[in-house]
Amino acid sequence: MAIADRVLFPQFNAQRIIPMILWPISIMMVLERSIILGVNGDRTDDFTPVYQAALRFLNNQPVYGEAYQTVEPHYLYPPSGTLLMAPLAVIDPERARWLFITFSVIALIASAYLLTMLFGYGWRSWVFPTVLFFFFSTETVAHTLIFTNFNSFVLLGMLAFMILMMRNHQWWAGIPLGLTFAVKPVLAPLLLLPLLNRQWRILVTAVGVPALLTAAAWPASVDPMKFFTRTYPYLSEVRDYYNSSIGGNGLHYGVDPWLVLVLRVAFAAMAVFGLWFLYRYYRKSQPLLWLTASSGILLCTWFLVGPLGQGYYSMLLFPLLMSVFLPGSPMRNWPAWLGVYGCFNFDTYFSTRWETFGRAIEYNKVTWGWSLLMIAVFCSLLFRYLDLRKAGLAGPILEEFAKSDAPSTQSDEESGSDRPFVATLDK
Length: 427
Fold this sequence. Notes:
The structure is a single chain. By secondary structure, this protein is an all-alpha fold. It folds into two domains: 12-236, no CATH class; 244-407 and 420-427. 65% of the residues lie in helices and 0% in strands. The chain has 20 helices and no strands. The protein has helices at residues 2-8, 14-40, 47-58, 79-85, 93-118, 127-137, 139-146, 151-166, 170-183, 192-196, 200-217, 225-236, 246-253, 257-282, 287-305, 318-322, 334-344, 355-391, 399-402, 412-415. The protein is globular, with a radius of gyration of 23 Å. The N and C termini lie far apart (56 Å).
């Protein structure tokens, strides 16, 4: 009877069942988000200003002459970014946009694979289709494709940087980071990580690549200096539209400046504590946790306290979310994932019955999500620090403490990888 039961009702095999479920769903989501939603576009169009700037650049016309008083998307890339975007204008705008969406999807799929590999899993494991499914179910990925933004390439550069940094390929690690800086320096806070880890060579290439591209673009541009005199001051201002940062949210709702300042200082202080704690106790004992959690803290804080934080920047927090796989992760609590829902969900809360309430949730969900995520991570690390003090542990965290909430290990065959990923960050 037992043998018959095993034949008729085999046990659940996650490695076989989960990919069987998620691969077809994920593939259909990728097609729907790109071919339908992406090609359809929306009222917000981030691609047209980039294409027009590239076209002006190729025709030796001024690039930085827009009127920044309007709320329409503007061209905000530096001269190095203009040089990299210039090939788009060789073909007509519609096909150029389709091509950009295609490469964005490829970059997102590659990012899902690199994130899976970073945590020691292979492409045959159940983790890869799960990550891919999560990617394309979020607002940040959907709107990156719908608005046709550069964010997917920033995410790819970030994950390539992390893998090369973990493997101690310092000269190479700075190159993908530098390429993202050349177009969109949103990852600039991550320069603190190789600095803290004494991997100086990363800083050389990360800064050198955009510098070289700027030097190449400067003589080919008609008005490169206007980026620094007109565009950069605009980027440094806090605007009250399409801005989920604390400053932008406060300006939109007329919050007193002193309260906005207090909130910004409070979140900056949380970040300082979190970075210090992770550096002191986890940099050498759990380098992958240190890298992914610290990067998430740096970027989420920058989105909140900086002049501009847009909802689709949230995709750069994917490594922090993935750290839930690691023992000691500050993501192992439900308030953190409630915050994740706030800044990643693709739901809409506009209500015809409770219009004011629904509008308030819709316009504030990203700010609240980032805030709750930061508070949950801070509290998780603070409580762990207090436990350490109570236990009298003053040095690096003990292995037993670090692994106190570790999941049961699985074989390489179950994970779908040929061998486990070896962290060499502290070499």
